[in-house]
Amino acid sequence: PQTLHVNEPSPKVDWASGAVSLLTESRQWPETGRPRRAAVSSFGISGTNAHTILEFAPVVVEEPAEVDSGIVPLLLSAKTDKALAGQAARLLALLSGQTEAGLLDVGYSLMASRAGFEHRAVLVAADREGAVRGLEALASGEPGAGLVQGTAGSAGKVAFVFPGQGSQWAAMGAELWEQSPVFAERIAECGAALAPFTDWSLEDVLLGRAGEAWLERVDVVQPVLWAVMVSLAEVWRAAGVEPSVVVGHSQGEIAA
């Protein structure tokens, strides 16, 4: 890169007597067949000197793995609502531009490498287009599909609320069973607990092997809902979300 704040080399230095030159404009760093190294010096006003030697890292080209990301949560936080909108605008510019960053990679980076501030938003998207629409809404202060905003308080508590019968549907939990080892393990434990008392398999019901007739059988619906609720609670706990209180209705009371 070009040397900062210099238009021409100083005439007080005999530049021709050595191999050092001052760069008045940026230039390419040519390949020479051996590792390229650069020395970076920083001279402090008090006489201190920091000197670093950097070596060019070889470029490793890896074929991107084909990943079906499914539904991806994008987590954003900031110290103010205005800053949160600005964060959404910057992420929108990234996803709208010519970038190779996958939605799953972006979601992971937001979760694993960003600090959590008071003003927060969660955008759930299945693809880049959905993420762009949600970010546009967040950046402009408008409601959007799959978008939730809130304020995190240090004194807040968490409640797990478990529903009663009526929340069931065919193949509920099947996709989570395939993607979440925590969910699958707890479902297996629930299935083992139910097995001595039932003539059906919890796993068969959830994965659709038992058809949809079970939706009409109360002796199946209620234990299955109980197992799904208990297993969902375990997924949240595995993610570090521990309830301060639990409450339930009907068989949700048993889950609680």
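[next item in queue]
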Amino acid sequence: VIYSLFHWDDGRWEFTDGDLPSREVIVLRMSTGDLLMEGIRRVQRWSRIRAGVGHLQQRYVLSPQSPGLLSGISLLKHELELVAHLDGVMTLDEVCRLGRLSDFEICRTVWALWAAGVLDRVPEDAGEGASEQDEEEDTAPHAERVAGASVGREIERFNQLHRFLFELVSYQLRERASHFFERAFSQACAEQEALFQGVAVDPSGELDAIALHRNVITQEIASYLRGLDRLLEIESALVLEIMGERKAAIIHDGLIALKERQLEGGAPSY
């Protein structure tokens, strides 16, 4: 029951002061830290993990309470290794470069360790009198500018489009959907190997935004964004081949309409 709460996007709660009820009390012989760690380990949606862990430049440090908290938490091997390699204040990007695991796994672990109190977030320094937008423009690397938007925004737009296609194809093909997307990704990786290297896909069809972001900004941005469009083209062609003209036309029209709304409204809506 408790673990199911970690899949909620939002919720409401109320605290009632007073004595515990005398009936139907269930005692869990688990630490709060273990409950938090295991609950977050079960989260598979990249968008939830990204929202929980923050952006690439978010800084983390071991909390003063971490020694005592760690003694009461059962960590997996890769989680222990991550804690052991933390050295002072580090950005999320630097933490992701530490381990051999995917950015998806590392970010989920960082989120869980922060929720359990093992890690603290270091507040960002803000200049006096500067607006949030001005600060973002001053600190955003020039390489992240693509047609007036950051690479991160472009990846968000792509993931919205890809989730739309992923959901419809998965619904239509059922158990054959995994083979469909394996075929599509195999072809896209063959054409744009550097772009998709180390990029995981979550069960909703969303690509690992941090791994994509790193791959894009370390190469020629425009060519790799074309690679993202190419993946949609490949999948659209497979839709036509496997599912027929009618289904392909529906998905095509839906993608066009979604792109138009993105252009009109700026940030994607979910």
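[queue empty]
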